[in-house]
## 1
Amino acid sequence: MTASIATNQTILVVGGGIAGMTAALEAAECGKQVILAEKTPTLGGRTSLLYRYFPKMCHPTCGLEINLKRLRGNPNVRVMTLTEVAAVSGTRGDYTVTLKIKPRYVNESCTACGDCGKAVSAEIANPANYGLDKIKAAYLPHGMAYPQRYVIDPSIAGTPDGEAAKAACKFGAVDLGMQEETVELKVGSVVWATGWRPYDAAKIQPYGYDRIPNVITSLEFERLADVRGPTGGKLLRPSDGKEAKNIAFIQCAGSRDENHLRHCSRICCMASLKQTQYVREACGDEGKSTVYYIDIRAIDRFEDFYANVYKDPTVSFVKSKVARIAVNEANGNPILHGVNTEGYQRYATEHDLVVLAVGMEPEVTGVKLPDDLVLDSSNFIEGSKSGGMFGAGSAASPLDVNRAVQSATAASLKAIQVIHKTASTEASAS
Amino acid sequence: MTTANQSAGAKYKNSFLKEVEANVEDGQWVKMCMQCGVCAGSCPLGPAWEHSPQKIFMMIRAGKREEVLKSDSMWMCTSCYNCIVRCPRKLPITHIMHGLANYAHRLGLAPQGQPTREIAKLFWDNLVKTGRVNELKFSLAMYFKDGFGQGVKNAMAMQSVGLGLVKAKRLNPMEILGGHSCKDKSGIQKMIAKAREIEDRRKGLA
């Protein structure tokens, strides 16, 4: 990899998900120098953990593959994984950023052969499957990981397991002596593509996510449906491993709620409509999906998708925010209690599995950000006071993949404008 | 000259919602309800009600004045506050229910003989006399509200509880002779009368 030297004309992109990759590539393809800093060991973010995209129901491998190809061919982007922004000082056109780089314990010689993983016995919760299964503590994050390099979990770095991984490596790629590094860089503009995280479903107490095994989140359901997931693509419910056929989807789990997230997360209606089709794919006509909703927000052209799902006889809709979930102790089935707004009938309906369509919370919620950044009441990044930093993708607003990419392109253009102004100021000064 | 828009506006104006907003405590919140139904599903007495809060709010918007004000629902609220805690829009549902109950009572539309309404009336009448609650008289009024015979039966059934309270000095038998009072009895009565006068003027109640 060509190491770019950071100057005031460099753009820092924070976050290597679909929006960060896009923002970095758009600027790099305009000839700008870009540093792409990602907190986890791989690019791809939450997009790479989806089973399919709506509305075309294609797999995320597609969009990511194109971006990775662009990335491999572009010397202007310097990718830094396991890297977090510790501090930003300065102003538009002249920022000093401090980056903290955590040790991967595996260097560039790694060929992703997998020998270290075989040699190690310790296991960790698999971050690529939201902890639904376990993997070896020396691992490749997932099939599409970029860079394609193993990671050694810090928990085994100083243990005999770590030594076993080192001994197993034929290429001398395991380096257990790696330390955390701090680097300081000059950049002209910063694009914050820090993304989102699922709202902590356990906080919605009446839904019992923390105590009822068969209540899961929509993101966990994505992993169940995926052949690379913990169940090999079978919709097996957590309590007894039985195939779930009668599945409830609860909308606005955390969103549009003054007690939780104030905003509408915008993607969840479409995500649940999409997931009803996973049930159809897995169970055919025997599958049964029930969507409990306040109102379905299938924005603009997605109305078509909604209309098609509505016609599907395996899918039914109940206009009601579920009040609470109880359990049938005999079979582990969750029982949904509430009142249907269309007729005001009280219901207590049993399902095999409940999927909470959890809301999007900005990943930076609770993180101390530079004072220059302007956030809205839900912690989405609106921009910066001095106009040199921008939010992109779902860090800026709750967005689906398609709109996150558009937002990233827009943010990239704004960052390029800052760099152009910086360059002309520097030229006139010299 | 009135335009079609203006006359349609006058004709279809939902006056009951406006009436509730003007005359019911916290009534201005009613229009904020998004009909999600969490209040109805969270109410411990839900199945016992004629109409759930969510339904009451929709009925107000639909202009069903008589049905709302004659409903027993507001009187079934035990103020557990489950609905307020869970409402995603933070509507003060309990308070609106109490406001509706009070308004229906003042208009003389509240259901006759509804037990919660009866106890509320006895409590209020007891309180305003001296500015202090006379618990002995209040208990007796409760016992005898359904006639003398039933009153004696009630009193006999509660005898041990009553004596226990007297022994523990929680109930004073001497209260039967007028009972304790606040320092300025006529002052508090004037305050209440004035408050009632202001409320009546503002809400157009006689």
## 2
Amino acid sequence: MAVTFIGVRHHSPACARLVARTIDELQPAYVLIEGPADLNPRLDELLLGHELPVAVFTSYRDEERRHASWAPLCDYSPEWVALTRGRAVDAQVRFIDLPAWHPAFAGVGNRYADAELRYAEVLERLCREFGVDNVDVLWDHLVEIAPADDLAERLVTYFDLVRGETAADEGDSAREAYMAQWVAAAAQAGGDEPVVVVTGGFHRPALVAALARAGSGGDEPQDPGPSAGSSSPPWPDIPALPTHAHGGSYLVPYSFRRLDAFDGYQSGMPSPAYYQALWEYGPHGAARHLSEAVTTRLRERKQTVSTADLIAARTTAEALAMVRGHTHPARTDVLDGLASALVNEALDVPLPWTSRSPLGSGNHPVVVEMIAALSGSRVGRLHPDTPAPALVHDLEAELERENLAGSANHELDLTREHDARRSRLLHRVRLLGIPGFHRERGPSTGLDPQLHEHWQVRVHPDRLAAAIEAGAYGATLTDAAAAALTERAVTAGSDVDKLARVLFDAALAGLSTVLDDALQEVDRAVGRVPELAPLGQLLAVVLTMWRHDRVFGTAHTTALSTVIAAAVRRILWLVEGVHGGPQPADRGRIGALVACRDALRHAGTTLKLDREDALRIVGRVAANSAVPPDLRGASFGFEWSFAAVGDPERVVRGAFQPATAGDWLAGLFALAREEVLHTEAVLTLLDERITGMDAHEFLVALPALRQAFEFFPPRERAQLAERLLARRGHHGDARALLRGVNDPERVAVGMALDQRVDARLRREGLIVQEVRP
Amino acid sequence: MEAVEVTAPAEQVQRPRAEVRYEQELARLKADDQAARPPGWALSVQAARRFIVGDQKLDVSRKFVGDPSLIERALVTLATSRGLMLVGEPGTAKSLLSELLAAAVSGDSTLTIQGGAATTEDQIRYSWNYALLVSEGPSQRSLVPAPLLRGMAEGRTVRFEEITRCPLEVQDCLLSPLSDRVLAIPELTGPGSMVFARDGFNIIATANTRDRGVNDMSSALKRRFNFETVFPIADLGTELALVEEEATKLLQRSGVTAAPNRGVTEVLVTAFRELRSGQTARGDAMERLSAVMSTAEAVSVAHAVGLRGWFLRGEPGTAEDLVACLAGTAAKDSPEDLAKLRRYLSQQVTWRSGDHWKALHSARHQLPG
């Protein structure tokens, strides 16, 4: 038997070249590749003629776990080269690894991640020994840029060293044992014919050892007779999907950007566009290509890249290559050179290629463009004949049925059953993250009386890929959307803001089944919320759903009741903790008190919320001068709206200070608009006080006052204006008065001008009396 | 009046310069150096790199903790026609790195200009011996060269510390030495009036990102430098080891025989890292301190903690000492920082296990104010 093992790093052009050379030389009978064995009957699907990169997407779902994983393939993947070259020399090509849904892959999102990264210690030692920043630099140094002469031996040495005595974890051991079965079977079947095995370098030592053990083991007297090659070999069984589980593997179009976005243990080789260039043009061409791409991108974005800079960058790159012992500048040599020449200020975060982390925030714009140029924008495309999962068909059918598939704008009236159904459908599609479905307008919090939605549907190039991947959530649109929503609720954890959106999305998509699970989380999270605003938003949403069963089908359910009670408790607790004196009015925290009041008013009796206790708390807040004015005003409004105030006029008189009046009133109006409107004495008092402000005070208070009075709808503002006119003995059209303040800035500028003119006239002795009343 | 003895024997010098401290290592590297040297350099680029990142074979210690690629870029820059600008937060060992680079490249780290608000061109380029100037007129004899002139004439590395502390017009006197590699002395006539830089001359400047905006560099000067940002140490283990090692050294010099307590040092380094980055180990976001929480500061706190424990009670420093010392270093005179520190000690310490964290929590009342 002649088994040649090639241990590769996934997505390594140098390894891909080695694979191609080996297969061409040996003309093997069998080519075994690390890849999902359940795809063996469907290998032709891979070879339909796609534009790479594409990926095999596998999903799995049962009661306990849900798993999705990708096996991305690009032009320079050793696995892809093995597949195509193997076919070209008429070898039998087989994928020999466990299916991606197998428990051995639990937690693995990228089949072609670097397995050795999980065993970091030895790699760190190697990097220190070679004096390089990280594994990628080491790899370029040892493999990609180094001469190809003795690459095979170098790879063996490298991976033997990396694997060393390390025992693989349970998942890797299971996979290696399974792959070893295939190798043994092929070795037997191949007889004297060569067999080529292409796997991750980390697994190679284990497979070599396993084959040696099998060869010298008990079944020694095997006769590789002349018939052995032709008879059907005892190939290992391909594990079948458990009966209670849903899942499957499909091809999806992939992109360089996604290939580059894997993180941590899931990551493989970075910078696909660079390695594509390395595959196509070799090291020298790739370096040139890289600097060109970076320069073009920067110049497109109007960044200065002078010829002097480019000369400096080139010189530095060449010098670095020399210092580091490279015959051609490697990836990081070019990048370091460009960074030295082009970045002339302090960086906020380290250069991303010195550590193996994905691009975070705070990077220098030039560095961001450099990384984008390395990453590339290539997007794969599937051949039209490629099969697709059930969800894709269900989605297409549903969209066709409701006539929503094509690019169009839709105006939906949620009170009509037909439109409501279409809306729910569109929301479910949106929840699955399928691009091209955008709601421009519509109810956004459950609080606004908005009952129309405006949707913009576009046929997006990624619709198919997204739909195939969303197929992991379920076979039908309803199941899939519900599963996606549950997942969001679980991952939202204690983020109440996110949970509120989950709840509302559930209502919009008509998926109330998901609510019960999600709400347990909300209840626990509420007790830990540090801020009023998001909590207020949550309470408002939940309360609306609790009350308006007709639209959402979420009548007085106990789960919602628990949340309401918890939120009311927490809001009252937090309100009392806000201190810090005068601050501008904050609509968010005022909103929290509004929601809390509404909850007490509409659900108080049913849910046995303690109104007296609440009133005692807001009473304390309203009287505390360390509390910001908006909250004091709101607390007072809270009391007043429950008619728990003896003499409102007296309180208003006491609280009205010109500097903070606007903010205080904003709080008051938000909670007790009606009461203010119907208390003549308070209106009169406010009129007096505002008229009594001097010009400067008024200018300072104006923005806040405007904000405060915006709580009144136009009709009520007109009423107010009428009364003001009446108080002054006029009976004109009050609406004209409102239109007059259309441009308050201009009015304010005019007033300031008047005042300056007055001041100057007085100074020059041209007038002696105050002009203003 | 007795004359002041100004030359101290080498062993009594508080901090010998790098080329003296590492004389042996430099000699070994030089003897072993096979690679080609850039013109005017004392070592090849590879040997200079090994001097800084360390080399076990030649028993050369690792002197700078950070990415090796940073050192390579810095050395390559020094071999080109651009100056090297090291920028970063205070306390990230920029000055140490600049000293090591100068020692490796030129074998001499003493041509140093300390930037400051009062730095003048005289201190950078040259000045005159006024007695001679008056009696003889301008001449080579009456000329007093400052580091820049000497570096250019002798082909050596000039260090310019805290360049952004200098006024803009003073910084700009570097323009022609950096681009044309020439310095004019208009007072002299003849060949001495132009000093052309010899091979081996270059400038290493350091600047503090906290000073950003104080005296921003002109873009003309920026173009003549390659910028390298030096970052705080990324890895807890590395920083901890460094702080422990340096603090032990300092304590020994101060006559303290007790080594710093490892648990206390770990608490200290962790707290410093969290206050610096504004994020706790479990991921809570919090406010950063505005004070500098650098590794160098951590070392000095560890030193102070050790001194306190030893001279007050005769034992290694404890978490209580740490709290007492933190107020002085971390909060300095900023009441906001003190408040942030108090909030950190009362809320972000309780959830951790370990006796030292518990002791830290219970000692939080020792913060002044």
